[in-house]
Amino acid sequence: MKSSMHINQNLSQRLGFSLLSLVMLITVIPILAVIVYIILQGAPAISWEFLSGFPRDGMRQGGILPAIVGTFYLTLGTAIFSVPLGIAAAIYLAEYARENVVTRLIRIAIINLAGIPSVVYGLFGLGLFVFFLKFGTSLLAASLTLSIMTLPVIISAAEEALRAVPQAFRTVSISLGGTRWQTIRRIVLPQALPGIITGVILGLERAAGETAPILFTGAAFFLPRLPNSPFDATMALPYHLFVISTQVPEMPFQIQYGTALVLIAFVLGMNLIATVIRSRARAKRQW
Amino acid sequence: MDKSLDWREYVITRAIKASGYSAILFVGLIFIFLLREGLPALADVPPGDLLSTRWYPIENYFGILPLLSGSLVVTLGAALIAMPLGLGSAIFIAEIAPRWLREILKPLVELLGGLPSVVLGFLGILVLSPNLRTLLDLPTGLTALAGSLLLAAIAIPTIVSIAEDALDSVPQSYREGALAVGATRWQTIWRVTLPAARSGVLTAIMLGIGRALGETMAVMMVTGNAPVIATRWNSLFMPARTMTATIAAEMGEVANASTHYHVLFFIGLVLFLISLAVNVAASSVVFRQKKRAERILS
Question: Which of B210, B75, B39 is nearest to B152 (CA)?
Fold first, then answer.
């Protein structure tokens, strides 16, 4: 009697574990399939001309240089605004803020910023930057919109990295006569830097792949040249992929898959860099 | 020299404090601008018309119910797919997989989270929806179901990473206790670990669904964009149109400060308030749990 119960339990555990393994496979296989499929389909399109040329013949031929450069500019613009602000906000939360109502409000605000739908950021950017501040549909307006969207990712990651630095480091620095800012600047920040950089890259990676926030704030359907001022509209890889897969009839598949491949290479390349920095820093860390 | 140091320290400290408050400022600004551009919709369109069942802006029909229903159907479908897959994967990664497998699986799921949604939408058009069409024998593959499948893919990484964190932070002694009194690992997972992590798991599900509800590009590309109200069970197999997709598709072609423009901002305001509710609810679950833990410990 007792042993039959035991067998039953073992059986249900085996069944349960197999079921969960199956669920895991169902989740993971499509991820791999998607990436492998895009690489296989897109690789034939990749050539020097594709990467360095301008679109021709209603974007059905030629290259995607303006989209690549546009995404690069947008990522850079986003970094200029969101990185200093995000790190400063993280320093405030990790090093200065007391646990009170205001701090809790800040945390709730950060959580909410992270949850606002990307298209709502687009609306906000249109209302504030494009119309109210009169930046027009531009690189500047799109970068600012993406910056605010990226901010919560950077703040959370940087705060976590700062908090991971042991308290003893701060105590020693203060006891040797360092001021609070000197302690942060010379001791805490350098120790937390790899974690902060990882968070920054992951935040910018999201910005680089987004379409909805730039849809009405800075994305251009087609631009026969590169943007030459922050007040120019710009092409961008994600928006370009959207355009050529929905708005252009008789678009050659190869160019579509090639564009998708360049986009995921851009984004996953950033992801890879972040992962390498993180694991290297973990290996070197002495605390 | 000491004095200049004091002065610099003062400025820097001020700047850091100001940055700290920036998140509140931005949430406030977003809310103000949505109100400013969205509320005139209520003056232009009588509330009764806004809550009607016809969305046809060219002829001034601004009923947002079909869009609400579209978002609901697509998100519900996504939740039904993403919850079992996401939670199952989180349990597998946290409780069953050996360490080396864990180190492979976690980054792999994070990779999915890093894929731009426009890439998923692109594959949705070229690969997913033609296959759905032939597989299910539908007139078109661009349906709510296609949207749900893509949204599930977008929600799963969020669910897995938060739920896995929650399971991982359950103290090891809980599991050891259960195993010591003769429970199998399977029983331990279901009766001890999972209940102990339930607030985190709940947060994971809520934030996952929140992400799905707010997703725009993938959904716009594959759902067929027909603003019809879901009335029957088979709505999942028909084209639909969500609130997010409507804003993204129509804002580009709208005259500034027209009624249509204000109504689209009004829909944005509704989306903002929904995401606010979801996130405040999700974070209050975490706060409440923390408080209880503090009480027990003290």
Answer: B75
Per-domain residue ranges of chain A? 61-284
Q: Do B20 and A92 touch (CB under 8 A)?
A: yes
Question: Which residue among B13, B34, B127 places its CB closest to the CB of A123?
Answer: B34
ipTM topping 0.85: yes
pTM summary value = 0.91
Boundaries of domain holding B44:
39-297
Residue B265 CB neighbours (<10 A): 27
Across the range A1-23, mean pLDDT stands at: 81
What is the Cα–Cα distance from B52 to B68, expressed in whole angstroms? 11
Tell me whether residue B258 is in a domain.
Answer: yes
pLDDT for residue A1: 46
Token pair for residue B4?
A: 């200049």
Q: Could you tell me if residue B34 is inside a domain?
A: no
Mean pLDDT of the region A96-124: 93
Pick from A27, A18, A22, A33: which is nearest to B155 by CA? A27
* Tens-place pLDDT, residues B276-290: 999 888 877 765 665
Q: Which of A48-52, A83-87, B81-85 has the lowest mean pLDDT?
A: A48-52
* Architecture of the domain spanning A61-284: Orthogonal Bundle (1.10)
Q: A215 and B248 in contact by Cβ < 8 A? A: yes
CATH code, domain carrying B241: 1.10.3720.10
pLDDT at B293 over 60: no
Subunit contact B247:A119, Cβ cutoff 8 A: yes
Residue B21 with chain A: CB contacts under 8 Å: 102, 106
* Cα–Cα dist B93/B102, whole Å: 6
**What is the count of structural domains for chain B?**
1
C-beta atoms of B116 and A264 within 8 A: yes
